[in-house]
């Protein structure tokens, strides 16, 4: 998500403004401290003006095949 945000030319604060939330929320999501659900993924993608499937594919590629919940 960090790469997508930066590619969109946004700071954490600017993205938070678009999302109408605190910058700390964006920081927690980017650090992996806060997981997001599919609806939040769609909202984040729209705020960064990217396709949600692109973000999902990047997340899938960064997750180990044997990752456990």
Automatic annotation (TrEMBL):
Describe the location of the HTH cro/C1-type domain by residue ranges. Answer: 1-55
Q: Which domain of life is it from?
A: Bacteria
Q: Which CDD domains match?
A: HTH_XRE
Lineage of the native species?
Bacteria, Pseudomonadati, Pseudomonadota, Alphaproteobacteria, Rhodobacterales
Q: What is this protein called?
A: HTH cro/C1-type domain-containing protein
Source organism of this protein record: Pseudooceanicola batsensis (strain ATCC BAA-863 / DSM 15984 / KCTC 12145 / HTCC2597)
A GO molecular-function annotation: DNA binding
One family from Pfam that matches here is HTH_3
**Stretches that traverse the bilayer:** none
């Amino acid at each position: 998500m960090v790469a997508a945000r930066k590619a969109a030319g946004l700071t954490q604060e600017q993205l938070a403004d678009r999302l109408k939330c605190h910058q700390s929320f964006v920081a927690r999501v980017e650090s992996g401290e806060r997981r997001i659900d599919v609806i939040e993924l769609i909202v984040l993608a729209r705020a960064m003006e990217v396709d949600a499937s692109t973000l999902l594919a990047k997340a899938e590629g960064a997750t180990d095949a044997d990752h456990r919940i």
